[in-house]
Every structure is written in C-alpha cells, then in structure tokens.
C-alpha cells in the first residue's frame, strides 16, 4: 500500500521542496528573532545580499558554481544507487591535480593550463572516488562508510602534501605559492564589469556544460541507461549483463571527477593557489543540493543557486545585522539543509492525503492503469 | 431481504457489505458491492489483478473508507476507520508480504504493537502462554523463540496468522497466501484453515488460483472490473465456470499443442555444479540436453536448485565446474556481464522473479522493453541511446503481445502482473533467440494472461527454438513440456513423459522418494 | 513579549536605509578563523577595539570569516562600507591584502602578524621571541626540575619563533635544561583543539616538567586546564590569561594585539604606514604580573626577569629570532 509515487510529479519536484524551504525559513526566522533581530530584515538582507548588486550576484553565482559541481557528483552516484558522501574529499584531492598541472605550466598559456588542469582535477578526483567504488564493487565495503573515511584520508594527505611539498619555505600559511596569472581561470568581471569584484569565473560555463552533459549522459546514453538500471535494481542490471563492477567503478570515477571541477572554480578561479581546506563543506552541501534537486540537472541548478544565495546572503546578513554572527548564519544554512535534505519527506504524507482527497492522485492513476490493463 | 442492522439478529453473517462504492479519481474501483460472508466458513474471493479484490478488503480492514455503502460486522453497522479499529472488531489480516521484523523472535513479533506498558517481560510471559494455547488449538506449531529470518516462509505465514489470532481475530482475511509457498506449505496452510473453520472462525481467502478455491472454500465470490459478478457455493461450480466469470469469456485451461519435432541439441549442460551465494552447492553435477523444437520442463519443489541452475545457464551465476554448450559450441558466461554474453550467444532468459530481476518497476515500459539489449546498434549508435527507436520498438512489442494498456510511457509498476510478464516475454522472445530459458512464466499472472503466455511459449517451440522451462506449478509443467526432468536436492532424479506420468508419480519423485532413470545418477 | 516582536517586525520598514548607508570613516576589524571569542589572539583584538569604543564613544565594523574564501570578500565589503582604517588579523592575509591595498590606495590597512609592503599598509609584528625569552627565564627560575614544556598551536614558523625564544630564556637560567616541544597540529584547527593541547601538556608534566608554555591560541585553554588538574603551572599567551585559573597560570606572555588594534583605531584614517615592530621597549610584548599570580612569584624572580628585560632592550643580550633564518641555535 505504501507506495512512494502517490503525489503528482510537479508536487514532488516543486511543491515539496518549496514547503520545506518555507518551513526552514520560518524556523530560521524564529532563531533570528530569538537573538533579537528582525527576521524580515534578515530575509531582506539575504535576498539583497545575494541579488542586490553585481558583486553580490557574482558571489552568489560563484558559490552556486561550486554547488552545481558537487551536486552533480552526488547525483550521478545516486542514479547508480550509490550514496557518495565523499565529494568533499574528492574535490580536495582534485585540487592537488589542478595545482600540480598549474604550477608546472603556469608560465605557458591559459589555453594549455586550464584544459590540462581540468583534466588533472578530474583525474585526481575521479581516482579518489573510484577507489571506494572498487572496494564496494569487489569487496562489498559500504560506499557510505568508505567515502566518509576517504574524506578524512584526503584531509590528512593533503595537509601532508601542502606542508611537505607545496608550502613555500618560511611561509606561515598552509598554502601553495600563488600561480602566475596565466594559470588563472578568467573571471567574468574581465568581460562583464557589472560583476564588480566578484570571483565568478569561466568555471560557471563549465558548470552549465556539465549540467547539459549530465542530462545527456544519464538519459540519452546506453551507459546512463545501465547506470539507472543498476541504481533502481542491481539484480536487473546483473540479469541484463551490465557489469555492475564496471558500472560502479566508472560511475564513482565520474562522480569524483565532477566533484573535482569544484577545485577548478576554487583553485584556478578564486584563490589562484592551493589553500588548506579550500573545499570548506561544499562537498557536503552537494548532498543537500542533489537531494533537493531530485538528482535532475534543472533541480540541481536551482538548488545550487539557492545555496549560493544562502552563502552569499548569509555573509551579507552578518555584515548588516550586529547580533548575527557566523554561528547564526551556520544555523540558518543548517536548517535549510536539514529540512530540504534530511527531512525532505516531512510533508509527503500530508500531501499524499491531500491529493488522495482531491482525487486525481498517483495512487488512483495507478489503480486506473492496472484496472485498464486487465480489462479485456 | 431486509436485515435488522441496529440489533443483532439470531445468527447474523460475520461480514455483510451493502452497496460499497469506492472511487479513486476517475476510476470506479468498487461498484455497488454486496457481499455476505457466513460465520464459520471459508469464503473465497477470486478475480483478476485489478478486479478490486484488494480495494474491497482494504475497505474492510480500514485502510480506505468507502465512498458509500455499509459494512456490517456480526450484524452491526460499523464505520471502520483504521486497522486498529478493524482488529477491535475481530477482523485480522494476513498480507501477501509479511509484516514481520526479521531479526526478532516469533514471540516478539506476535506481541509487536501489543507490548503493553513500559516493561516488556510481563507481555512476553503472557504471550508465551497464549501462543502455546493457540498453537495447540489450531495446530499451528511454531517455535516461539525462533528468529523470523531463520524460519521458512510457510512458518513465517503461521506467525502472521498467530499474530492475528493473538489479537483476538475472529474473521481472518488472507491475501494471496499461497503465492510464496511451496505446494507442501500450501497444503499445510489449508489444513490450518480447515482447523480454523472447525473452531468457528471465518476466513476470507483472496486468490486467483482456482485450484485453491476448489480445494478449500465453502463459498466463492467472483469479482470483475470492480463489480461483484456472482457468489456461488463452491460445491456447485467448476474451475471452468469460475474462470469464465472472472475473465468474462471462455478460457482454455488446457493448452492445445501438437507433438514436438525435436531437432539437433541446442542447449547442452554437462556435469554442472553451481553454488549459491553462501557457497553451498545447490546444483550437483547436472547434465541435460534441450533440442531445437522441444520444451524440457524441470519439475521440483522450490528450493531444490532450479533457480541456481537457471541463473547459471543464463550467465548470472558462475558455475563451480561443468560446461554449457550452445548449438554444440562450448561457451563461457563467467563474469558479472555473463547475462550479456548469454544474449550475444543467442540465449534469452525469462527470469523466475520478474519484479526482482527481470524488470525495473520504476522504469517506463519502453525502457524495460530494451533491458539487456540496450547496447545493440538497434537502439542507438555508439554510446548514445536512440530513444525514438526504443519507443517504437516497445510500441511494436506491446502491440504484438497485447500488453495493456498499450502505453510504452507508462511506469512498469502500474501494469498488472500478467502484463508485466508479457513485457518481459515480449522482450526476450523479440530478439529471435535460439534458446529460451523460462522460469515460473505465470507466477502471479491472471488467467487470461496465462493462456496467452502459454500460447507464446508453444509458438516459440513450434518455430524451432529450444526451451528450458522451470515451474513449481506442476500443471503448467505437465501441459507445456515435451519431456519432464524432476529435480531434487540439486540433482535430476528422474525423467518422465508428460503424457504418461501421473501427478502422484511426479510428486513422489519431487519428494526424492522414487526415481526412474534420469539423465544423471 | 508579543509587543517586542511586533516592534521588531515593524522596524523592518526602515531596513532599506541600513543596507545602503555607509558608515563614514569608522574603523573596521576582521577577525581570523578562530573567531571573535577565542580567548586569545582574536579576542585580544576585540578587547582593543572595545577599549577604543569605550574611550572615544565611536563605532566600528567587525566581521568573523568562516572560511578562507571569505577573506577577500569581507575586506572588500569593509572597504565598500567606507571603513577606514581596516585592521586584519593573522598571517593568512599575505596573499590577499597586497592586491587589495593596490586597488584601494585611499584606504589604510593594518595587518597584524604579517608584513605587507605597500604604501597604505601598516604591518604590525611583535618581538614574540623576546617576550617568550622572559617567560622562559621565569619558568626556569620558578621550577628547578630542569624540564620545561612547550605546546604550540599550528606548526608554523611564527610559533617556532615563540618556542625558540622560550627555550633560550630557559637555558639562560639553566643551561642544561630540557624543553619539550610539541604542536597541536598542522592545520588552522590546531588553534582550536584544547583537548590535544591538554594531552600534550599532561605528557610534559608526566615527564617531569612543572611549567608548560602554551602558544596555541584557543587550544591553550587545554594546557591551563591540565595545569589545574595536575597541580602544575601553565604560561598563558597573547592576552593576560592569569585570571583563567588563578594560582596555576605562572604568567602570560602578553602580546599586546589589543594595544596594536586600539592604537590603529585611535590613529584613524591618517595613520602612519610601514613596518611597526612592537617589542619589549614599546611594551608590545611582555610578561604579566597581577593579583592572580603575584603570590607565585618572588621578588627575586621578578628582579631577575626585569634584569633580562633591561639587557635585551639595551642590546646586551641578543635573543635569536627564528623567523630570520628558520634556525634555532640553542
């Protein structure tokens, strides 16, 4: 009886996330009220901060770019039935791939450095994800556990590499040397001054391309078909003779590669050097983005934008409201993640009841179809 | 006939439904249903999938509320709002899919939801005694301390029945109870049901297996397209009549076919040994041959290695030893892409469990109609999937196999069991394979579709294909097969001619008691 | 309660003004990752700013960054709000500040703990090695075990500088002394890990040390806690931490970040730029003596340390600065 498809698709995709979002903002408003600020002003600050100026918009898009990459990474794995919690570590390791290429070639040409750095990041991130994939496929080590563990390993290994090899001698900061300008991902403000000083860069074009590519890969290729088959029913993919081992490893490699693009935005686009912990949670936000975006590119783009707004608007809120400090901003962001990600099904039962009451519900359609199916 | 509804009559029926209507949006799932279930009887309700049986029972059990109509329990009008309420009225339900906690003991499952207050020990103690009494009264022996996942499916079903009885059920609804049982377990269940009847309980049995209706029920009601067609005394009817009432037209229960004309050996299995996932040998040194133009049926009680044999031949399970030859050539189907290797070699596979294996139920029908063949150039050049071509292919397949509704964009889960099976069959037969491996082709399929599926399999045979058939339905094996091999404990213990062997002979072989000269041993 | 909520809501009508309004020439302060209330480096800056506020009645802007990516954004935001001068904390600004200083030549920046050579930047660095020398000497005067502990925060050259000065101070008093050198980590987390710092301190106490110097930002609280638990002594850092556990904090190596911030705020938009080294002579570094620790110290000890201080200021004693050559000759 307890089917999952008993509300219309539009309600599942639009209404449900929207309700969750509204609830998250209402509760956030209470938090803001409790610390003695005006919630309406907080909402306004977030909105204004995110869209009110070219700079703000640029920052919003810049953050959204990160989340598109990590969101796609989580989503592709989800289509294959794999819960990749390791986008954080994969993006981090991908940063190493990007910086090694960029450090080696930053005296040459941007047309050489950027594509190769993208490949480097994809290769490192992909490799970092493929290992847990392989362990899952061959050894049955649960991918949730291994990808979490790999986040820790990535963090420790990257600190080691930064400390031992990349940090210039005598420097106090845990970061590599600054790249020559040739290796910088061109920022949009170079062509569009309206973006002010914001770091939004050509990586956003890469993000848009990958959104389209994701759609084609998942729904218009044979690989995507196999991927979705395994995701929905691994026994069916085995029955069909799609190699689950290969599928898992390749999917995870793609997932890690997508997460790795986040390093391009960050390392080549913003910092122009490898900084300790540059991922700063974007990998985890990717999980919420994929969940909220229902693993669909359009949804992911919108969810990424939402989180871009929260990040940029959140720091704006911190600027204009004296009682709002970074902890309060974190609470607001966490509430949105909680309600849209972890508790995304909160309103589902009531919506189901509502639609069942209205009549034209999915459950009824299902019965209509089966009834029609056996009429003879 | 007017029955007093306010006060109890002298001997009111256990259940009486009057004019029940239920709409789901535009669908009229139950139309003006009247039903009388007499106390102390086993009452069968038959109908094809989607006929409205489950909806009706869900209304009775409080899952749904009827749009109109009255429910009388023991002569009193009741508004049943939820299943707790139904239980309070003495109505218990055993679902098709058990609602048990796998890692709990039998006892713990029985008191689940009736634990009482904070401390659980008194409830357990009380339940143990009650369980003992119930088990003795209804001959429902189950070890109260056994863990659910360690007991057989038949035993699990007993636990479900005990659960309902423990909660004081007087009226027991069983939804397709034999779908998951072996023939022996089904016989056990029927013994239990008879005992329940003798003790004055009322049983409502939902099924689409006419044999069961004939074997156990006192009365039978037939539903079709949401309406109650007729209620009959079982003794006064026949399977043929019931089938006709269910489908709305005459149905051939016996398959018509010509004698086979076997050609050269197409599928040869030699000394094959196969392990299950726990590395226990389930197929032991089996050899068999299937020739072009013949159907070889493998009879046996479920769990004697048939599944592993099928899976191995279809490339889904690596053999421990032995070889498989297709049209005389030795083939290797090892590796986790064995399914594709098998298809490339011209071997099609209709799996035993279509929902678990043969289909992705959340996919649209067209996607399932290319599953396993999606890599071919037919469905797109290089890495790309030609969705148009795939949908056109699906449309053609759906038409040929009369899948209803004929909509390739419909989610597969929304097709009935029979139509889902047709989608699988249409796909596997559609690639013109040389060898067809078929497992349980009509499990959970309604009568109209069974007839169609059987005809298709015979047609394949007549087109010169070699067919290996596994089924736990002995009737099916006997009517379709040209030769019958009997499997017991991983070995082929006998071979029989379907025209000559009696059910009794086969039954003895299936039980591992008598053996005639099989291909091995 | 209800009324106050309503009044807050209605205040929203005026919010547009607040968004666009620029605070002219109020000073600005950007804390580093540890956060405003780290009881150490950042909090010292906060205290300095608050002192300035109390003294002048002026207003200032401040901001806590949550990740490195926000540095540039926060700094630009400060500039666009008209803050001048802007004080930024920590050595992590080495790569962001030079670029922005060029872009905004009319704004004055002050960077604490880092040197940025731009015409509109004041770089404030401290002679941590001399201050550390004094507390090292005091530790050696107080404890006669010949064993002394040091728990640093993030393992970076700046903290090695603390260690090196401390060890030199210890050895000036007891040439044969041993100093146990430990760091809580290699990442910025090392500033906020009192648990590890406490364990490291306890290890030093177990090995016979009676005094442990914590140059570890927020992690230092773990060292002070360990001192209290083991009935030994800790030496605080940056702010005067003597009051945190009176009787267990021998002294604190004060690095007057608060003074640097307060001075910068007081100097205002016309502040003098260039390198400012705050040492013993400027009271930029030093050791703290107050009611909380006075009873732990004898007059002789203080006299001895004051003597060292005078000699260092006079140039009679040279304390080696680790950061000049990444060496610590002992």
Task: Write a brief structural summary.
The complex is a heterotrimer of chains A (376), B (521) and C (330). Chain A is mainly alpha-helical and 376 residues long. Chain A has 15 helices and no strands.
What do you see in this structure?
The complex is a heterotrimer of chains A (376), B (521) and C (330). By secondary structure, chain A is mainly α. Helix content of chain A is 74%, strand content 0%. Chain A has helices at residues 9-34, 39-51, 54-79, 87-105, 110-139, 143-166, 203-220, 222-232, 234-239, 244-271, 282-292, 297-320, 326-342, 348-358, 362-374. The model of chain A is unreliable at 1-5 and 359-376 (pLDDT under 50). Chain B is 32% helix and 24% strand. Chain B is built from 17 helices and 20 strands. Chain B has helices spanning 53-60, 83-88, 106-111, 121-138, 153-166, 183-198, 210-216, 239-247, 306-313, 338-344, 354-358, 365-368, 387-400, 417-430, 447-462, 474-480, 503-510, and strands spanning 15-24, 27-37, 42-46, 68-73, 76-78, 91-94, 171-175, 202-207, 219-224, 227-233, 265-275, 281-291, 295-299, 321-326, 329-331, 347-350, 435-439, 466-470, 483-488, 491-496. Chain B is globular, with a radius of gyration of 25 Å. Chain C is of the alpha/beta class and 330 residues long. Chain C has 2 domains: 2-126, 3-Layer(aba) Sandwich (Rossmann fold), CATH 3.40.50; 128-254 and 298-325, 3-Layer(aba) Sandwich (Rossmann fold), CATH 3.40.50.2300. The radius of gyration of chain C is 21 Å and the shape is globular. Mean pLDDT of chain C is 88; it is low at 1-23. Classes of the chains: A mainly alpha (376), B alpha/beta (521), C alpha/beta (330).
């Amino acid at each position: 009886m307890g089917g999952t498809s008993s509300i219309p698709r539009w309600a599942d995709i639009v209404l449900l996330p929207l309700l969750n979002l509204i609830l998250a903002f209402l509760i956030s408003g209470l938090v803001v009220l409790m610390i003695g600020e005006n919630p309406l002003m907080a909402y306004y600050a977030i909105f204004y901060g995110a869209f009110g100026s070219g700079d703000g918009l640029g920052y919003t898009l810049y953050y959204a770019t990160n989340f598109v990459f990590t969101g796609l990474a989580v989503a592709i794995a989800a289509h294959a039935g794999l819960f990749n919690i390791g986008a954080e570590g994969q993006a981090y390791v991908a940063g190493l791939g990007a910086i090694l290429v960029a450090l080696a070639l930053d005296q040459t040409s941007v047309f050489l450095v950027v594509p190769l750095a993208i490949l480097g990041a994809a290769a490192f991130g992909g490799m970092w994800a493929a290992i847990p994939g392989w362990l899952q496929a061959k050894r049955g080590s649960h991918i949730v556990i291994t990808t979490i563990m790999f986040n820790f390993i990535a963090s420790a290994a990257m600190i080691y590499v930064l400390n031992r090899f990349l940090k210039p001698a005598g420097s106090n900061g845990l970061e590599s040397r600054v790249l020559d300008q040739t290796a910088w991902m061109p920022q949009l403000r170079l062509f569009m001054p309206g973006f002010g000083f914001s770091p939004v860069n050509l990586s956003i074009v890469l993000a848009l391309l990958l959104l389209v590519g994701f759609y084609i890969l998942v729904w218009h290729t044979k690989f995507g078909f196999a991927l979705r088959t395994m995701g929905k029913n691994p026994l069916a993919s085995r029955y069909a003779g799609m190699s689950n081992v290969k599928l898992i490893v390749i999917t995870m490699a793609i997932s890690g590669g997508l997460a790795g693009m986040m390093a391009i935005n960050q390392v080549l686009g913003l910092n122009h050097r490898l900084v300790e912990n540059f991922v700063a949670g974007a990998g985890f936000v990717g999980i919420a983005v994929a969940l909220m975006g229902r693993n669909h590119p359009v949804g992911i783009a919108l969810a990424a934008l939402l989180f871009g707004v929260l990040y940029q608007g959140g720091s704006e809120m911190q600027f204009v409201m004296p009682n709002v400090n970074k902890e309060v901003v974190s609470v607001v962001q966490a509430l949105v993640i909680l309600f849209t990600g972890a508790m995304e099904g909160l309103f589902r039962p009531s919506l189901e009841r509502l639609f069942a009451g209205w009549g034209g519900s999915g459950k009824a359609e299902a019965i209509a179809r089966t009834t029609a199916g056996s009429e003879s | 006939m007017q029955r007093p509804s306010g006060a109890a009559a002298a001997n009111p029926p256990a259940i009486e439904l009057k004019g029940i209507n239920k709409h789901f949006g535009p669908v009229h799932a139950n139309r003006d249903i009247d039903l009388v279930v007499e106390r102390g009887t086993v009452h069968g309700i038959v109908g094809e999938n989607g006929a409205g049986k489950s909806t009706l029972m869900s209304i009775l059990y409080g899952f749904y509320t009827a749009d109109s109509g009255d429910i009388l329990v023991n002569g009193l009008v009741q508004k049943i709002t939820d299943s707790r309420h139904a239980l309070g009225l003495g109505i218990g339900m055993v679902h098709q899919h058990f609602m048990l906690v796998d890692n709990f003991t039998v006892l713990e499952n029985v008191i689940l939801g009736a634990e009482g207050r904070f401390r659980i020990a008194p409830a357990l103690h009380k339940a143990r005694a009650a369980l003992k009494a119930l088990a003795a009264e209804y001959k429902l022996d189950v070890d109260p301390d056994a863990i659910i996942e360690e007991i057989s499916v038949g035993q699990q079903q007993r636990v479900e029945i005990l659960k309902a009885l423990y909660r004081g059920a007087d009226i027991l609804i069983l939804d397709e109870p034999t779908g998951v049982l072996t023939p022996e377990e089904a016989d056990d269940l029927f013994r239990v049901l008879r005992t329940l009847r003798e003790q004055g309980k009322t049983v409502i049995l939902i099924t689409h297996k006419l044999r069961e209706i004939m074997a156990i029920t006192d009365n039978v009601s037939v539903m079709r397209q949401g309406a109650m067609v007729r209620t009959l005394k079982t003794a006064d009817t026949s399977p043929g009549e019931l089938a006709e009432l269910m489908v709305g037209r005459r149905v051939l229960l016996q398959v018509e076919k010509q004698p086979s004309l076997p050609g050269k050996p197409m599928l040869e299995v030699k000394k094959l040994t196969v392990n299950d996932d726990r590395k226990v040998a389930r197929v032991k040194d089996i050899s068999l041959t299937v020739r072009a133009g013949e159907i070889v049926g493998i009879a046996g009680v479920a769990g004697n290695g048939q599944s592993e044999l099928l899976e191995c031949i279809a490339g889904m399970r690596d053999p421990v030893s032995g070889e498989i030859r297709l049209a005389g050539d030795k083939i290797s189907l090892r590796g986790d892409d064995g399914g594709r290797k098998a298809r490339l070699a011209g071997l099609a596979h209709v799996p035993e469990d279509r929902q678990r294996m043969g289909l992705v139920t959340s996919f649209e029908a067209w996607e399932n109609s290319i599953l396993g063949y999606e890599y071919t150039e037919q469905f797109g050049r290089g890495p790309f999937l030609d969705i148009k071509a795939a949908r056109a292919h699906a449309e053609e397949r759906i038409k040929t196999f009369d899948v209803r509704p004929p909509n390739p964009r419909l989610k597969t889960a929304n097709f009935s069991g029979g139509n889902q099976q047709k989608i699988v069959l249409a796909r596997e037969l559609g690639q013109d394979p040389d060898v067809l491996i078929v497992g349980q082709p009509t499990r959970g399929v309604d009568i109209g579709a069974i007839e169609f599926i059987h005809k298709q399999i015979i047609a394949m045979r007549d087109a010169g294909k070699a067919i290996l058939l596994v089924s736990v339905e002995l009737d099916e094996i006997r009517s379709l097969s040209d030769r019958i091999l009997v499997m017991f404990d991983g070995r082929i213990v006998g071979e029989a001619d379907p025209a000559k062997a009696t059910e009794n002979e086969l039954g003895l072989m299936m039980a591992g008691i008598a053996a005639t000269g099989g291909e091995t041993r | 309660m209800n009324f106050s909520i309503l009044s807050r809501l209605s205040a929203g009508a005026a919010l547009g003004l607040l968004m666009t309004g620029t605070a002219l020439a109020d000073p600005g302060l950007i804390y580093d990752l540890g956060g405003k209330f780290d009881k150490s480096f950042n909090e010292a800056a906060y205290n300095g700013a608050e002192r300035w506020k109390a003294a002048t009645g002026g207003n200032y802007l401040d901001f806590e960054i949550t990740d490195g990516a926000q540095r540039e954004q926060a700094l630009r935001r400060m500039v666009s709000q008209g803050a001048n001068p802007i004080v930024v904390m920590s050595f992590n600004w080495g790569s962001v500040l030079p670029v922005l200083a060029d872009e905004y030549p009319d704004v004055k920046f002050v960077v604490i703990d880092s040197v940025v050579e731009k015409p509109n930047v004041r770089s404030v660095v401290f002679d941590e090695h001399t201050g550390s020398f004094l507390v090292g000497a005091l530790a050696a005067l107080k404890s006669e075990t010949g064993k002394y502990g040091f728990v640093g925060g993030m393992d970076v050259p700046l903290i090695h500088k603390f260690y090196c000065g401390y060890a030199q101070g210890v050895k000036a008093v007891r040439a044969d002394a041993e100093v146990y050198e430990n760091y809580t980590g290699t990442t910025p987390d090392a500033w906020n890990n009192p648990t590890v710092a406490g364990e490291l301190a306890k290890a030093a106490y177990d090995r016979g040390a009676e005094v442990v110097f914590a140059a570890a930002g927020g992690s230092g609280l773990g060292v002070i806690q360990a001192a209290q638990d083991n009935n030994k002594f800790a030496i605080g850092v940056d702010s005067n931490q003597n009051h945190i556990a009176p009787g267990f904090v021998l002294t604190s190596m004060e690095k007057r970040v608060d003074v640097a911030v307060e001075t910068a705020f007081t100097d205002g938009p016309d502040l003098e730029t260039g390198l400012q080294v705050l040492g013993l002579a400027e009271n930029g570094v030093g050791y703290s003596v107050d009611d909380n620790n006075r009873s732990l110290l004898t007059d002789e000890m203080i006299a001895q340390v004051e003597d060292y201080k005078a000699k260092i200021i006079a140039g009679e004693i040279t304390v080696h600065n680790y950061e000049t050559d990444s060496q610590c000759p002992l």
